[in-house]
Amino acid sequence: MSKPSSKTLYQGLGIVLATALVTGNMMGSGIFMLPATLAQKSSPGAILLAWILTGAGSLLLALSFAKLGTRYPRSGGPYEFSRQAFGGFTGFLNAWLYWNGSWIGNVAVILAIASYTSSFWPALQTSHWLGFLFTSSILWIFTIINLLGVRLAGKVQTVITIFEVLLFLGFIAVASIHFNANNLLPLFPVHKGLSTTSNAASYTLWAFIGLESATVAAGEIRNPKKNVARSTIAGIAIATLLYMAINLFAMGAMNETQLANSSAPIADIMEKFLGHTVGEIITFGAIISVLGTTVGWLLSTARVAYAAGEDGVFPKIFAKVHPTFHTPYMALIIGSLLANLLLLMNYTKSLSSAFNFVTLLATLSYLPVYAFTAASEIMLAQRTQQKIKIGGFILRFAAPLLAFIYTIWAIYGSGAQTVMYGFLLMLSGVPFYLYMNRKQASFNQENTNPLADL
C-alpha cells in the first residue's frame, strides 16, 4: 500500500478492525443497564417483541448503509449519502445532526463509565468536581489515542470488543444454567401489555446506534467497496444476537421486581449465582467494555465533521489532517472540547439524570439521519430508472421503505419532549448553514472573478 500524503487519511482498517468498530460502537454502555431499564418500563413479552422489531428495523437500515457505503466509499457516511441524493442542505442537516449526536453521545458513554466506576470509588457520585476531572481524563486519553492513528485506535477497540464478547458469552452461559421460565410469566400483564412495546423500543434503539460506523470511516477502510458492507452486516449480526440472548437470559435468571430494581443487572445476576467477587469482576469488565466504545465513537464523531469540512459545509478547520498521524486532529479536538463543556454542565445533575438526558437527545439526533439514509437509497437508485409504477416501486424498494417507516415509528415512540429537543437541535444548525453557504459563495466568486486581485 502506498504511503498517504500528509493531507489524506490513512486506510488502516481491515475487515476485522472495521467489524470490531461496528460491533464495539453498538455494544457499549446501553446493554449493561438495559435489562433493568426495560423491566421498569415494560413486560417480558413486550420487551422481547421490542428487541425483535428494533433488530429487524436496524438490520434493514444496515442494508441501506451497506449498499450506499459500497457505492460511495468515502468518509462521512450518512452525510455523503444524503448530499448525493438530496443536495447540499440535506447533506448539511445530516452532518449537523450526526456530528452533534455523536459528541453528545460521547458524553453519555463517558458518564456511564463514571457510573460503573463509582461502585469501586463512591466519591465519583458525591463529589461533582472529582467526577468531572475523572470523566475529562477519560475523554482526553482516548482522544489522544485516536489522534495518534486510526490503526492504533482500531486495534485498541478490537481487543476490547473481543474481551466484551467473551464477557457476554460467559454471562449467557451462567444465566442459561439458572434460567427459570416462570420469571417471564405473564408475558403481557394488564398494566404492561402490548401498548408498552413502542416505549421499550425507544430504549432498545440506543443499543443499535453505531450500526453505520463502517460507512462513517469508509475513507480509512481497506478495499471499502467490499469491506464496508461486510463489516456493517457482520457487526450488526454479532451485536443483535448477543443483545437478544443477554436480555432473554437476564429476564429468566432474575424475577421482574429484582431486575427492575437492579442498578447493575448483569453484575447482580453473576453475583447472585457465583458470589460477590465475580460480581465485582463483571462490573470492572463493564468499565473496560465501555472504554472500547469511547474509542470508536470519538473516531466516528471526527470523520463526519472532517467530510463536511472538506466540502466547505463545515469550517475548513475540521478538514485539517495531521501530517504525521494522518488523522483529522482538529475535528477530534473540537468535538472533545464540546463534550468536555457538556460534561461540566451536566455535573450540576446526578449521574443517572445526566445520562438519561444526553442519551435521549443523542438518539433523536441519529433517527432523522437514519431516515434520510433509507430515503437516499431509493432516490439514488431511481436515477438509473426511466419508468416505474407504484407496485414495482414498493416491491423494488421494500427494504428501504420499511427501514424508513421503522425510523418514523421509533421517533414517535421517543415521546413528544424528546422529539421537541431533537427538532430544536436541527433548527439550530440553519443559521450556521446560511453563514457557511454565504462564505463558500463569496470564496467561489473571488476565485472566478478575474478582477478580484486588481
UniProtKB/TrEMBL annotation:
Instruction: Name its cellular compartments.
Output: Cell membrane
Name of the molecule in the record: Amino acid/polyamine/organocation transporter, APC superfamily
Q: Membrane-crossing residues?
A: 12-34, 46-66, 96-117, 129-148, 160-181, 201-221, 233-253, 273-299, 329-348, 354-372, 393-412, 418-436
Q: Name one GO cellular component term.
A: plasma membrane
* Classification lineage: Bacteria, Bacillati, Bacillota, Bacilli, Bacillales
Q: Does the record bear Membrane in its keywords?
A: yes
Leader sequence residues: none
Q: Give the way it sits in the membrane.
A: Multi-pass membrane protein
Molecular-function GO term, any one: transmembrane transporter activity
- Principal localization reads membrane
Note the InterPro entries from the entry.
Answer: AA/rel_permease1, APC_superfamily
Determine if Transmembrane helix is one of this entry's keywords: yes
